[in-house]
Write a structure and sequence with these properties.
The chain is about 25% helix and about 25% strand. It is α/β, with parallel strands linked by helices. It is globular, with a radius of gyration of 17 Å. The structure holds inosinic acid and magnesium ion (MG). Inosinic acid binds near residues 42, 76, 99, 150 and 151.
Length: about 200
C-alpha cells in the first residue's frame, strides 16, 4: 500500500475473527454473566465490537493506567489512574486487551484484579505478539498471533494517532513516523489507500 505501512488485518479479517471470538466466549460463559474489563484506551474499539458479538447478559468496566517511567517497562508496574467502577468479588472477569507484547503490564494488572477475589479471571486479546512474551501468561482467547512489528489502527495508536483506522497496519519505517508523527494520515484521509475488502492478510 505504501512503503510506510503494510496492511496486516483488513476490516473484514477483523470483523470475521471478532464474530468467532464472540461465539467462543458465548459458549465458554453459557449461563453466566461475565464482566468484561477493558484497559483504556487501546482496547475500546475491540471491546465495542466484541460485546455485540456475545449473546449473553454481560457488564463492562474500565481501568486506566500509566507507566511510572522508563523503568516500569522492565517490571510492568503501573499506576492506576482510574479504577473499576464496581467490585468484582465473586464475578467472572474477562480482561479484554488490544495487544499483548511482553505481557508485563497485563500480568501486573492481573495480580491486582486477582487480589479482589473474582470467581474466575481470563484474558481475551485481539493481537498477541507471542514471540515477545517475557511474563508467562495464560491467554484464553486470541484474535491473531501478531508478528513482531509495530502496529496501529483499530484502537492501537502511535502517540494517540490512528486509533480510528478501521484496519490494522504494520509500520514500515518507525524512525520516519517518530520524526513525522502525522506521516500515516493519508491512510485516514485518502479513500484510495483503503485496502479492498477480501484482501488477504499480508503477514
Ligand atoms: P506489554 O506490557 O509489553 O505487554 O505492553 C502492552 C502495551 O503496549 C499494549 O497494551 C499497548 O498499549 C502497547 N503496545 C505494544 N505493542 C504495540 C504496538 O505494536 N502498537 C501500539 N501499541 C503497542
Ligand atoms: Mg493496552
Amino acid at each position: 500500500m505504501t512503503d510506510l505501512a503494510t496492511v496486516l488485518y483488513t476490516e473484514e479479517d477483523i470483523h470475521q475473527r471478532v464474530r468467532e471470538l464472540g461465539r467462543e466466549i458465548t459458549e465458554e460463559y453459557r449461563d453466566r454473566s461475565p464482566v468484561l474489563v477493558s484497559v483504556l484506551k487501546g482496547g475500546v474499539v475491540f471491546l465495542a465490537d466484541l460485546i455485540r458479538a456475545i449473546d449473553l447478559p454481560l457488564r463492562v468496566d474500565f481501568m486506566s493506567i500509566s507507566r511510572y517511567g522508563p523503568g516500569s517497562h522492565a517490571t510492568g508496574v503501573v499506576r492506576v489512574l482510574k479504577d473499576l467502577d464496581h467490585d468484582i468479588g465473586g464475578d467472572d472477569v474477562l480482561v479484554v486487551e488490544d495487544i499483548i507484547d511482553t505481557g508485563l503490564t497485563l500480568s501486573y494488572l492481573l495480580s491486582i484484579l486477582e487480589a479482589r477475589d473474582p470467581r474466575s479471571i481470563q484474558v481475551c486479546t485481539l493481537l498477541d505478539k507471542s514471540v515477545r512474551r517475557i511474563a508467562p501468561l495464560d491467554v484464553r482467547f486470541t484474535g491473531f498471533d501478531c508478528p513482531d512489528r509495530f502496529v496501529v489502527g483499530y484502537g492501537l495508536d502511535s502517540g494517540e494517532r490512528y486509533r480510528n483506522l478501521p484496519y490494522i497496519v504494520a509500520v514500515g519505517d518507525q524512525a520516519r513516523l517518530s520524526r513525522d508523527p502525522r506521516a500515516l494520515e493519508g491512510l485516514l484521509t485518502n479513500p484510495e489507500l483503503r485496502p479492498a475488502a477480501g484482501t488477504a492478510p499480508t503477514a
